[in-house]
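Please think about what follows:
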Amino acid sequence: MKKQFQFGAVIVAVMLLAACATKPTPPAEAPTPEPAPPVETAPAAPQKSAAELEMEAKAAEEELKRQQLLSEERIYFAYDSSAIDEPSRAIVEAHSAYIMENPDVTVSLEGHCDERGTREYNLALGERRAQSVQKLMAAYGVQAKQIVVVSFGEEKPADPGHDESAWRKNRRAELVYKLK
C-alpha cells in the first residue's frame, strides 16, 4: 500500500512538471470591439392622470373607512331605546355589505341591556335592539337566512359597574360572526 501511495505521488509530480513545461502562448491581438446592439427596455408605465390618482386615493380612503367600521362590532343605544343613531347606521351598513359579499357568513345579533328594569322587560328590550339591527340589515339587502337574533337582556354585561358609564356600555347589540 505504501508503494502504491509513493507511485501515485510520483505520477502527480510528473504531471505537474509537465504542465509547467509548456510555453505560454503569446496573447492574440485584441479584436476591435463591435458596437453593442441597443438595449431594449421595457416600455415605461403610462403616467396616471391627476384624476386617476385622486380616484385611487379616494378608493383607498373609503376602504380604510370601511375597515374601521367593520372593526366596530357593537351598536350602542340610548336608555330605554332601540333606535339606531346615524353613526351606528354607518357601522350596520358596512357590516351588511360584508355579509352580502360573503354568503358563507352568518351573524348573530345579540341584544343587551343595562341592569335597570325587570328581567322580562330587559329581555324584550334586548330583542327589540337586535331586531332593529336586523331590520336595517334587511333594508340594506342582507338575506334573512344569514341573520340570527338573540336577546341576553341584562345577563351578559360588558361592564359590571353600577353607574351611567357602565350602563352606557351595556345598552348594545353585538354582531357575532360565524361561518356556515
